[in-house]
Amino acid sequence: MARAAVLGRLSWQLAEVSAFVDETTDVRSIVLEAPAWEGHRAGQHVDIRLTAEDGYQAQRSYSIASAPEDEELVLTVERLDDGEVSPYLVDVLRPGDQLELRGPVGGYFVWEESVGGPLLLVGGGSGVVPLRAMLRHHRAVGSTVPARLLYSVRKLDDVIYRDELTRLDGEASVDVHFTLTREQPAGWEGYSRRIDRQLLEDVSWPASERPLTYVCGPTSFVETAASVLVELGHDPARIRTERFGPTGT
Amino acid sequence: MSFVSRGFKGRRREDAESARVPPGQYVTGDFPVLSAGPTPHTPLDQWDFSIVGEVDEPRRWTWEELQALPSEEVTVDIHCVTKWSKLDTVWRGVSIDTLLDGVETSAEYVTAFSDGGYTTNMPLEDVRDGRAWVAFDYDDEPLDPEHGGPARLLVPHLYFWKSAKWVRGLELKLEDEPGFWETYGYHNYGDPWREQRYWGD
């Protein structure tokens, strides 16, 4: 394929961990210096490959949290207690360590200015990571495309990028809505339930405005959000989804 | 490979099953879901499966007609490009050999097409000789919509994005044409044993 020949192979490369940001008790952002990195688009992911001393390897994919315009490549990783790779990335990795990666991967769950909007981003838990990259890109290019984020988490302490998202909410073309599904602090004025038809109807653009929607989160969350939006009359072809985890969680 | 991830131990498998897991994959007991868009829900009375394109004449089966064809139970290992593999999955479906029986074609390629607009391509020989099915039961139950029900293509020897969910037919072609993920950077063929995940692999 001609495009493949131009793009070439996605080679494994080494990046160095320069810093961490503890986002929540289970979620950490890893700031990487990746000299061979050739850039990405907001929403793409990378493959990480870990190698043990005896040569055993494990690979996983992680969404890129930084915007293409950001100086450093940032991944945000949630520790899964029964995971093989995420506990290493969150608990073992230290500044100065090297990490083997290749990418960027994926070209559909991607937003850039030219794709337009209005833009509706719906994130559940760590599904907010690629959406955050889109919002950072939106800001970096000074986009006037109206953008809304609906972000569902169990409790306030689980909100990733809390300060940044709260600040973004004040920007001219961006609205950020949180829903805390399990526990709300006293005086909480945001939403306090799992996403449902009414909530999506409140937050989303009307179907008549033909919003472009990106939904990312656990499977059941994505299934609910995407199905309700289709019921509300949104064009299924303008709803892009990314899911993680098994069915039934 | 001289690089070592400091402090990484990993969870290696040293059992009989490890030989069944392609490079870069891990075994899961779950059944993860990956789809690029909303789950379509086509009523069975509006569902059909067709074979079109480079054929002597197009073929079409309604849901009832497909169910009336001889079906097979197959137990296979499946491998998703996102790194999980699932062993000994049990499906029931109609072999593509059965559907292609009597079809005259000079095509060498096939594109599977699905509700929701999804497509995926492969050489025609990869869906022949008992290597591919239109599957409608999983674990003795009707296939769940999230997993591609009412019917999905099952081509277990290729990465699982080739096993198109919500499949509605096959277009036979003289020339190869990349499908959905194949256009977005994923490998045109997708052999898990050669770790053909992305363009250039």
Structural description of this entry:
- The complex is a heterodimer of chains A (249) and B (201).
- In chain A, 21% of the residues lie in helices and 31% in strands.
- By secondary structure, chain A is of the alpha/beta class.
- In chain A, the strands form two sheets. A six-stranded antiparallel β-sheet of chain A has the order 4-3-6-1-2-5. In chain A, strands 9-8-7-10-11 form a five-stranded parallel β-sheet, with helices on both faces.
- Chain A is globular, with a radius of gyration of 18 Å.
- Mean pLDDT of chain A is 93; it is low at 1-6.
- Chain B is mainly β and 201 residues long.
- In chain B, the strands form two sheets. In chain B, strands 1, 4, 5, 8, 9 and 10 form a six-stranded mixed β-sheet that branches. In chain B, strands 3-2-11-6-7 form a five-stranded mixed β-sheet.
Features:
heterodimer, A: 249 residues, alpha/beta, 6-stranded antiparallel sheet, 6 helices, 21% helix, B: 201 residues, mainly beta, 5-stranded mixed sheet, 3 helices, globular
Can you lay out the helices and strands and say which pair or pack?
The complex is a heterodimer of chains A (249) and B (201).
Chain A lengths: L1 H6 L5 E10 L4 E7 L11 E7 L5 E7 L9 E6 L7 H7 L5 E8 L13 E6 L3 H13 L6 E7 L8 H7 L5 E7 L16 H7 L8 E7 H13 L7 E6 L5
Parallel strand pairs in A: 7-8, 7-10, 8-9, 10-11
Antiparallel strand pairs in A: 1-2, 1-6, 2-5, 3-4, 3-6
Chain B lengths: L25 E2 L20 E6 L5 E4 H6 L3 E8 L4 E12 H5 L8 E6 L4 E5 L9 E6 L2 E2 L9 E3 L12 E7 L6 H4 L18
Parallel strand pairs in B: 1-5, 2-11
Antiparallel strand pairs in B: 2-3, 4-5, 5-8, 6-7, 6-11, 8-9, 8-10
